[in-house]
Amino acid sequence: MPALIGLEGVTKRFTSRAGDSVTAVEGVSLEIESDQFVTVVGASGCGKSTLLKLIGALLPPTEGRVLRGGRPVQGPSRDVGIVFQSPVLLPWRSALDNVLFPIEIMGWPVGKYRAEADRLIELVGLQGFEQSLPRELSGGMQQRVSICRALIHDPPLLLMDEPFGALDAMTREELGLELLRVWSERRKTVVFVTHSIAEAILLADRVVVMTPRPGRIVTTVSITLPRPRTLEMEFSEEFKGYAKLVRDAIGSTKGARP
Ligand SMILES: Nc1ncnc2c1ncn2[C@@H]1O[C@H](COP(=O)(O)OP(=O)(O)O)[C@@H](O)[C@H]1O
Ligand SMILES: [Mg+2]
Predict the structure, then answer these.
(1) Please, are residues 45 and 213 in contact by the beta-carbon 8 Å criterion?
(2) Which residues have C-beta within 8 Å of that of residue 235, sequence separation ≥ 6?
(3) For 72-87, how does the pLDDT look when each residue is reduced to its tens digit (9 = 90+)?
């Protein structure tokens, strides 16, 4: 069985407005198995978002190949749910109608997905807010709506680009654990980008560590902490060991750091 996602020697170069060539991702090879929760961690500007867009076929690689199920990806697909850093909800639609929006776009029968929308909304703790407009919800609640929206058509692959980036630490941890609950219930492959080492470890089966520009993968670390994960695990020796591994891998590419 081929891996769900395969990257083979993938390089992505952009041309800046000044006409210079910028290598955002260079020579990345990576395999992601079905049902894995993979986090990608690295400094700002190291090519994490670009990598995620390559995986989601929102961008074509300059060199190399991106495969899904052993076949080259053609373009954006229904099999993928994407959550961006900011919620991007439609302001005039209720939470429920935002969640159901992809179904409408795909021309599927909305009524049939109503129960599923309710279930997801309950799963992320938003019951009672179905009819609220985005502006009536906090940032964290809006992000929960976007997560439901990415999940409504039950895509086997979920791509998340620093989805909790704009949130305070407490909301962030709480939402992370909620996401793990959804993932364990619905079993999907998740690729989750973050610049937080602790978040990367707490959520993942495997942490992919990227170097600063041009973005390369320095190492991947398998996380064997038991599931379900809890916040207390962050204080364990095992967790601290992982954190040191990841920090050293990032640090080793930047020169000496205290
Ligand atoms: N569309 C683009 N055009 C030109 N340069 C880009 C574009 N997208 C990203 N870059 C550059 O590629 C590098 C990596 O960006 P990005 O993938 O967004 O990093 P990260 O998500 O890790 O912060 C940065 O130097 C960024 O300026
Ligand atoms: Mg980014």
Answers:
(1) yes
(2) none
(3) 998 888 889 999 888 8
Task: Identify the burial level of 67 via C-beta atoms within 10 angstroms of its C-beta, where 0-12 means exposed, 13-18 middle and 19 or more buried.
Answer: middle
pTM: 0.92
Query: 47: CA distance to ligand 1 center in Å?
Result: 6
> Across residues 44-63, what is the average pLDDT?
94
Q: Output Rg (C-alpha) for the chain, integer angstroms.
A: 18
Closest protein CA for atom 25 of ligand 1: 45
User: What residues sit around ligand 2, an ion, with C-beta below 5 angstroms?
Assistant: 49
pLDDT interval class at 2 (50, 70, 90): confident
User: Looking at beta carbons, which pairs linking 248-251 to residues 24 or more positions away fall under 8 Å?
Assistant: 249/209, 249/218, 249/219, 249/221, 250/41, 250/42, 250/43, 250/197, 250/209, 250/211, 250/218
Task: Please indicate whether residue 21, judged by its CB atom, sits closer than 6 Å to ligand 1.
Answer: no
Going by CA atoms, what residue is nearest to atom 6 of ligand 1? 14
* Cα distances (angstroms) measured from residue 26 to each of 136, 211, 213: 43, 10, 9
Tell me the C-alpha distance between 62 and 15, whole Å.
Answer: 11
Query: What six digits make up the tokens of 10?
Result: 């993938």
